Amino acid sequence: MSNSNSNEDFLKIENDNLKIHNKFLEEKILELENKLKSYTNNTSHKKYYNKNSDIVKERSKEYMKKIKETNPEKIKEWRHQAYLNRKAKLNLNNNI
Fold it and tell me: Which of 5, 22, 44, 92 has its CA 20 to 30 A from that of 62?
């Protein structure tokens, strides 16, 4: 009987430790998500794009031109992936 009580006590302590650890990890996730938000799609990025859309488009054209020259297989890979995504989306819409 004392063995089962000690086992139950151990399990309760272990459960409490896991709950504390889980709470800590949840708080850490929220903290990291908030930090990440400051780097992705915040208003300053949108303002920059609105003011400099021509520059951004020109840079992307230059990048694509560079990729065509250096690694044309990459473009084929991107186009194939886009095709698969369109096909999956079309199948999903047809199944609904």
Answer: 44
